[in-house]
Amino acid sequence: MVAALAVKREYIQHVGPAKTLRYRLGREPFWWLGAGVVIGVVGAGLGTLLASKTSEPWSDLWSDVAGAGVGVVAVGLVGGALAFSWRAIEKRREEEAFVKDKLRAEFTELIVLYNGVKSVRRALRALGLDAKLHLDPERVKKNVAADERYYEPESYQGVKELEVVGRAVELTREQVVGFQEQMGRLNELQLGYEAKKRQFDQADLLGEDRATVVAKFKDIESWLNRLVGLWEARGWDIREGTKLVEVSPCIQPLVRRLHFRQYFTRPMQDITDVFNSHLFGAPRTRARRSVPAP
């Protein structure tokens, strides 16, 4: 209820004083409807009373007045009901357009966050910080062919191989600088997802889909927060000559394809489906799912 009222207040501020008056007229009884009905009732009642107490031709005149009063009441009720309905429809359309404009703006910001995380992922790989790049390519190809999850964080044997090669590789100055820059960017992106989670939890922009989207934002934000937390705990001690294995816990979940898909890409696809449904009426293409904690 609080969230709905907040959106309503923002809508009123957005449309301005003129439309706010129409908004109020759409919610409250029209004063002119009441005045017209009162005049019609008074005319009908007075005409009937005087028609019964006077003789012709005055009785005919007052009968006509009574009939006109009944007509005024009927026209006022029917016309007022139609006007009220039209204003209600117009107000609802304006509110729906306002919500869609808000969703488009939010969706644009969300795409920027999504592309930002993918950019960090690619930059870390380009810096040579993925331990898998230092393994024998033929051995990697063979292991992945046997098990596509061989080098995923959940695979004991594959992770051990990455740790061994990570202890043999020392970071260059360029790699250290790039690592710190990219993890700083990831920290900002994580805060952006956290802000989105709070925003959609408080604003009623998605109706019954709000809880689903908030849960997806929470999954993504929590996953990114764990990676940033590892950087906060170890980043200050990363310098030229540090072993690659020291930064791997921050990087491997990002650069491993299947892990990244499960904890980032798929929740984002679910969120995108909800937005497309509300903005364009597109059918849902993905089943709702929850992401287990890694």
What does the overall shape look like? elongated
Number of helices: 9
Using only C-alpha atoms, the radius of gyration works out to: 33 Å
Strand content: under 5%
How many extended strands? Answer: 0
**Distance from first to last alpha carbon:** 35 Å
Q: How many domains make up the coordinates?
A: 2
Along the chain, the helix and strand elements come as HHHHHHHHH
Stretches where pLDDT is under 50 for at least 5 consecutive residues are 1-8, 14-27
Q: Classify the secondary structure makeup into a structural class.
A: mainly alpha
> Sheet with the most strands?
none
Q: Averaged pLDDT, please?
A: 78
Percent range of helical residues: over 70%
Structural summary, described in words:
- With 294 residues, the protein is an all-alpha fold.
- It folds into 2 domains: 92 residues, no CATH class; 154 residues, no CATH class.
- Helix content is 78%, strand content 0%.
- The chain has 9 helices and no strands.
- Helix 3 packs antiparallel against helix 6 and helix 3 packs antiparallel against helix 9.
- The radius of gyration is 33 Å and the shape is elongated.
- 23% of the residues are buried.
- The N terminus is likely disordered.
